[in-house]
Amino acid sequence: MIRTRTDGGVRVVTLDRPAARNALRPQDLRSLREVFEGAESEATPPVTYLRGAGDAFCAGADLDAVADLDDPEAFARRGQRVAAAIEESPSVVVCGVDGAARGGGVELALAADVRVATPRATFGEPGVDFGLFGAWGGTVRLPRVMREGDALDFALSGRVLDAEEARRTGLVSRVVDDPRSVADEVAAGESDALAAIKRRLRDRRDDETRERAEAEAFADLHDAHAEAIARRNEE
Predict the structure, then answer these.
(1) 95-134 pLDDT tens trace
(2) Which CATH architecture has domain 2-186?
(3) Is the pTM higher than 0.85?
(4) Residue 45 and residue 4 in contact, taking contact as beta carbons nearer than 8 Å
(5) pLDDT per residue as tens digits for the range 53-68
(6) CA nearest 109: which of 8, 63, 118, 212?
(7) 170 with 148: CB under 8 angstroms?
(8) Where are the beta strands (DSSP E) in 105-227?
(9) How many Cβ atoms are within 10 Å of 171's Cβ, its own excluded?
């Protein structure tokens, strides 16, 4: 079950199956994708905070659902589309991991723009123990987020990282007691600037094209806020 609410200018999206450690069934993937694809609405706040209910962030795919798959490739593609919706959302997505993130839970976090963890957070890709691997875009995003050597070690060994090791390897950027506070910190920024920064840093085109787009976006923001910049310079 996926719950959404707006609180203090931040949209809060909660994975809410605490008894199952927020494991995701096909219907949950569908709902989560709809939530993030619906972020085009003008009423959507510029920052989204993704969290899990209870004592885990997300245990990944529901193992009962995986065992009964008729079309595993379609299931993988469904998870990939959810991760893509998170990554491509116009809203800045801050993922707060409190407790365990496993398999698909790690992959959802990898798709977010900012990942933060509490001291009790842990991360693992246990698929290798079952003869599988994370196929919701994990093999694409993991070496972008972590150094390739750390990514290979993490995925091939199936070992669990604690919060500090996740920070050291780049899997999360901070370890904090209250991840929601980071979402509030980001939300204090000007919404147009937040959107422009996300678009530029998420741009996967060649460097020359990206730099040209960066300059154009800066000029657009400058022109839109020229009066405020002028006032600041006069102070």
Answers:
(1) 999 999 999 999 999 999 999 999 999 999 988 887 777 7
(2) Alpha-Beta Complex (3.90)
(3) yes
(4) no
(5) 999 999 998 878 777 7
(6) 118
(7) no
(8) 114-117, 122-124, 160-162, 174-175
(9) 25
CA dihedral of residues 88, 93, 95, 101 (deg, nearest 10): -10
Place of tokens 């093999």: 139
Mean pLDDT split into 10-residue runs, the chain, 235 residues: 93 97 93 86 85 96 76 84 94 97 96 98 89 84 94 94 98 98 97 93 83 79 68 61
DSSP string, 45-80: -SEEEEEESTTEEE--B-HHHHHT-S-HHHHHHHHH
Burial of 37 by CB count in 10 Å (0-12 exposed, 13-18 middle, 19+ buried)? Answer: middle
Please state, as a whole number, how many other Cβ atoms lie within 10 Å of the Cβ of residue 42.
4
Strand bridging mode 92-97 / 114-117: parallel
Q: Is the Cβ–Cβ distance between 150 and 118 less than 8 Å?
A: no
Query: Could you give the count of Cα atoms lying within 13 Å of 55 in the half-sphere of its Cβ?
Result: 1
pLDDT score of 40: 61
Q: How far is Cα of residue 83 from the mean position of the Cα atoms in its chain?
A: 8
131, exposed or middle or buried, with CB in 10 Å at 0-12, 13-18, 19+?
Answer: exposed
Domain boundary assignment for the chain: 2-186, 203-234
CA distances from 14 to 92, 137, 185 (A): 16, 21, 19
Q: What is the dihedral of CA 208, 172, 47, 35, to 10 degrees?
A: 100
The answer to whether the CB of 21 falls within 8 A of the CB of 54 is: yes
Please, are residues 54 and 14 in contact by the beta-carbon 8 Å criterion? Answer: no
